[in-house]
TrEMBL record:
Transmembrane segments: none annotated. Residues 90-197, 214-363, 503-628 form the Plastocyanin-like domain. SUPFAM superfamilies: Cupredoxins. Gene3D superfamilies: Cupredoxins - blue copper proteins. Belongs to the multicopper oxidase family. One of its GO terms (biological process) is iron ion transport. InterPro entries: Cu-oxidase-like_N, Cu-oxidase_2nd, Cu-oxidase_C, Cu-oxidase_fam, Cu_oxidase_Cu_BS, Cupredoxin. The keyword Zinc does not apply. Keywords: Metal-binding, Oxidoreductase, Signal. This is Uncharacterized protein. Residues 1-23 form the signal peptide. It comes from Cotesia glomerata (Lepidopteran parasitic wasp).
Length: 656
C-alpha cells in the first residue's frame, strides 16, 4: 500500500492503514500521525492503534565533532527521533561514523502491539547503498519491507528515500540495523521495542517496572570505518577484531600507554525494592560474543528473541550477535551504585575487550558508593550461566542453553511429530584458497567470476560456505523480480554446480531452498570445521524456530557425517518415544557451539523469500547465507505500486 501525498513530519497526511496487504488503496481524508513520544506509552487492551511515524537520515558524520564543544548528549536522547545534541561521543576516539539522525545508536522505536510503523529512510551518503532490516519481525503480509538488499528490495540509492511501513504484529524486544556490507559496525542500528498489554504477557507478574530507558544495546566498535577491514589487510589492521564495546553507544577506551578517554558511562536508574524488566540486545558485527553480569544481582530470564519462556534465574548471560534476552532484576540490595560488566569473548578475549555501565539506585545520587570497577581479568563472578560456548547444556552444572528452556507462549504440538515434512542439513565452514592450492581461482580467474572473499589473518583468503554452497547475491530481488536470478541452485548437486565446479572450490550461486507452505521444516546446522574461539550465530528472517537439540563433541577437532548420523539417531529416538522435548523454546537467532550442532524446527507458514545467514557480517557477505523460499509466488501479497526495481542491464550489442 502506498501513501498518496508526501508526509510532512509535523502535520497531518493522507493515509489509510493497510490491514490486509492485498487491499491497497489511498484515502482522501487525513489521519493523524503519532510522534515517537506519543507512541512510547503503556499499552492497554482495546485501545485505538496509533500510526507511528519516524524519519531516519543516514549520513557519514564525525564522532567528537565541534558540536561536542557546545553540548553533550543526554543518556536518554535516543528516546526521541531527533538528537538533542548532535555530538556523538562513542568511546572518546575521533573517527568517521555512519549514523542515523546523528546519533549512535539510532532513535528508539517503542510502540504497542498492533500499532502501524512508518519509517522514511533517507540515504544522504553519496556513493553508498543502504537498507534497514527490522530484526526479529516476521513481516507477515509486509514481505517487501524486510530490508534485505537484492532479496526483498533494491538498495536505497544516495539521496533517495524509501518508506518502510508495516504492522507491529509481534510483541517483544527487537532492533533495526543496516543490512548492507558492514555498515552496522559503523553505527547503523537502534532498538525496536513492541509492548503488549500487561494482561497478555504471561510473565508480567515477575516485574513491576518496564522503563523505556531500560534497554541495554551492546555493540562492537572499531576506530576506523569498517569497510577499511573488508576484505582485510595483510599488515595494517590484519584482523577484523573489535577494538572496543559500546553500551548504548558510549563507553571508555584505554590506549596502550594506559591513558583512558573521558566519557561518562551509561547509567541505568532504578527504584529500590522493586522488580525491573531490562531488555538486552546484541548488535555485534564481528566474530566476538559478549558476556554480561550485574554486580550483586541475579538475572531472571523471561524472554529470548521476543519469545516468552518459563523463567530461569542465572548470574551471567552470554549473548551472540542478533540475540536478545529480557531479564528481571530485584533491586532489594543496599542503596548504592553497582557495576554492569560486558566482556568480549572469542577473539575479543585475546585483547581483553571490556566495557562497563552503572546501575544506580535512586537515593545514591552521586554514585560515589560504587566499588572498584571490575576489570577483564578480575571481573564479576560468573555463577550460573546462560548460553555456554561449548554447548554443555546441564542445569545441574549451572549451565543453561536455549534447548533447556521451555516456551511460555502457545505451542504448536505438530512441531514435535516424528517425521518433518522437509529436512535440510546445513554444514558450514570456510574454504581457504591457500590451504587448498586454489590460489589461481582467487587471483587468476576471469573478472566475471571473481570470488567475494575476506582475509581474517594476513595470509588466509577465505570464502564462507553454508550447505556446501557459497552464496552469490542475485542482481535483483526475487521477491519482486524472480527473473533476476543469474545463478540459481537449490543444492550443491544442482546442474549449475556440477557444470561450474572449478578446482575443488565451493559452488557459488544464489542458494535457494524451496519449502512448501505450512510444512514442518527441520534444519540440522553444524560446524564442520572447528576453529579456536569461533562460535557462529545464525539468524532466520520471516519467523522463528523451536530449538530441539544442541551440543558439541569437544574431544574431536571436526564433526564428520557419521557423528551427525549418531546425533540424528538419538534425536529421532527422542521424538518417537516422546521423551526429552517438552514445549521447546522459540528463537530467531542461535549460537552454534564451536565444532557443534543445533537442530531446530519451524512451521513454514509465512510465504516469501527469507534470508538465513550467519550474523557475523564478514561471513554472510562472503557466502554463509541462503534463502528459504516458502510457498509459491502466488501466495505473496502484491508488490506495492511504484516499488523500486533494479538489476543488470545487458542489452544486445548493436554495432553501427
Amino acid at each position: 500500500m502506498e501513501v498518496c501525498k508526501k508526509i510532512n513530519m509535523l502535520i497531518l497526511l493522507v493515509f489509510i492503514l493497510p490491514i490486509f496487504a492485498t487491499s491497497q488503496q489511498c484515502a482522501d481524508d487525513g489521519l493523524k500521525l503519532s510522534t515517537p513520544e506519543e507512541c512510547m506509552r503503556e499499552c492497554s487492551k482495546n485501545e485505538t492503534r496509533k500510526i507511528c511515524y519516524y524519519f531516519f537520515s543516514l549520513e557519514f558524520f564525525p564522532a567528537l565533532s565541534s558540536a561536542c564543544e557546545m553540548c553533550q548528549p543526554t543518556t536518554t536522547q535516543g528516546l526521541k527521533n531527533k538528537a538533542d545534541c548532535e555530538c556523538i561521543l562513542v568511546d572518546g576516539v575521533e573517527r568517521t561514523v555512519f549514523s542515523v539522525n546523528r546519533m549512535i545508536p539510532g532513535p528508539h522505536i517503542q510502540v504497542c502491539k498492533n500499532d502501524y510503523i512508518v519509517v522514511d529512510v533517507e540515504n544522504m551518503a553519496e556513493g553508498v547503498g543502504a537498507t534497514m532490516h527490522w530484526h526479529g519481525l516476521f513481516q507477515r503480509n509486509y514481505q517487501h519491507y524486510d530490508g534485505v538488499p537484492y532479496v526483498t528490495q533494491c538498495p536505497i540509492e544516495a539521496f533517495d528515500t524509501f518508506r518502510y511501513q508495516f504492522l507491529a504484529a509481534e510483541s517483544g524486544t527487537f532492533f533495526y540495523h543496516s543490512h548492507v556490507s558492514v555498515h552496522r559496525l559503523d553505527g547503523q542500528y537502534g532498538p525496536l521495542i513492541i509492548r503488549e498489554p500487561r494482561e497478555e504477557d504471561p510473565n508480567s507478574q515477575y516485574y513491576e517496572v518496564d522503563d523505556p530507558a531500560h534497554v541495554i544495546l551492546i555493540s562492537d566498535w572499531m576506530h576506523e570505518l569498517a569497510t577499511e577491514r573488508f576484505p582485510g589487510l595483510r599488515k595494517r589492521w590484519s584482523t577484523q577484531r573489535a577494538e572496543n564495546i559500546l553500551i548504548n553507544g558510549r563507553g571508555t577506551y584505554t590506549f596502550e600507554n594506559g591513558t583512558e578517554t573521558d566519557v561518562d558511562l551509561e547509567t541505568f536508574y532504578v527504584q529500590p525494592n522493586t522488580t525491573h524488566r531490562f531488555r538486552l540486545i546484541n548488535a555485534f558485527t564481528t566474530v566476538c560474543l559478549a558476556q554480561l553480569s550485574i554486580e550483586d544481582h541475579k538475572l531472571l530470564l523471561i524472554a529470548q528473541d521476543a519469545a516468552n519462556i518459563e523463567p530461569v534465574e542465572v548470574n551471567t548471560i552470554i549473548i551472540g550477535s542478533g540475540e536478545r534476552v529480557d531479564f528481571v532484576i530485584n533491586t532489594n540490595n543496599d542503596v548504592k551504585t553497582y557495576w554492569i560488566q560486558v566482556r568480549g569473548l572469542g577473539e575479543c578475549q585475546e585483547t581483553e575487550v571490556n566495557q562497563l555501565a552503572k546501575l544506580q539506585y535512586q537515593g545514591d545520587e552521586d554514585s560515589d558508593s560504587a566499588s572498584d570497577p571490575p576489570t577483564y581479568s578480575d571481573g564479576l563472578l560468573r555463577g550460573t550461566l546462560y548460553n555456554p560456548l561449548d554447548g554443555s547444556c546441564d542445569p545441574a552444572e549451572e549451565t543453561f542453553c536455549a534447548s533447556n528452556l521451555k516456551t511460555a507462549d502457545p505451542f504448536d504440538e505438530e512441531i514435535l511429530k516424528p517425521d518433518p515434512d522437509v529436512q535440510i542439513y546445513l554444514p558450514f565452514w570456510f574454504h581457504n584458497f591457500n590451504e587448498t592450492n586454489t590460489f589461481n581461482v582467487l587471483y587468476g580467474s576471469d573478472p566475471e567470476n571473481y570470488p567475494v572473499f575476506f582475509s581474517p589473518q594476513a595470509t588466509d583468503p577465505l570464502v564462507s560456505v553454508l550447505g556446501n554452497v557459497t552464496f552469490k547475491s542475485p542482481s535483483a530481488p526475487p521477491l519482486t523480480e524472480p527473473e533476476g536470478y543469474e545463478y540459481f541452485c537449490d543444492s550443491p548437486d544442482s546442474n549449475y554446480c556440477k557444470e561450474h565446479a572449478v578446482d575443488r572450490t565451493p559452488c557459488s550461486c544464489t542458494h535457494v531452498q524451496n519449502v512448501p507452505l505450512n510444512s514442518i521444516v527441520e534444519v540440522i546446522i553444524y560446524d564442520k570445521q572447528r576453529l579456536p574461539t569461533l562460535n557462529h550465530p545464525f539468524h532466520l528472517h520471516g519467523g522463528n524456530f523451536y530449538v530441539l537439540d544442541m551440543g558439541s563433541l569437544p574431544e574431536q577437532d571436526n564433526l564428520s557425517e557419521s557423528d551427525i548420523e549418531k546425533v540424528m539417531a538419538r534425536h529421532q529416538k527422542r521424538l518417537r518415544l516422546h521423551k526429552g522435548y517438552d514445549r521447546p523454546s522459540a528463537k530467531d537467532s542461535i549460537i552454534v557451539p564451536q565444532g557443534g550442532w543445533v537442530i531446530f524446527r519451524f512451521r513454514a507458514d509465512n510465504p516469501g523469500y527469507w534470508a538465513f545467514h550467519c550474523h557475523f557480517d564478514w561471513h554472510s557477505i562472503t557466502g554463509m547465507q541462503l534463502i528459504f523460499h516458502i510457498g509459491l509466488d502466488s501466495d505473496l501479497p502484491s508488490t506495492p505500486s511504484g516499488f523500486p526495481r533494479c538489476g543488470s542491464f545487458k542489452p544486445p550489442v548493436c554495432a553501427p
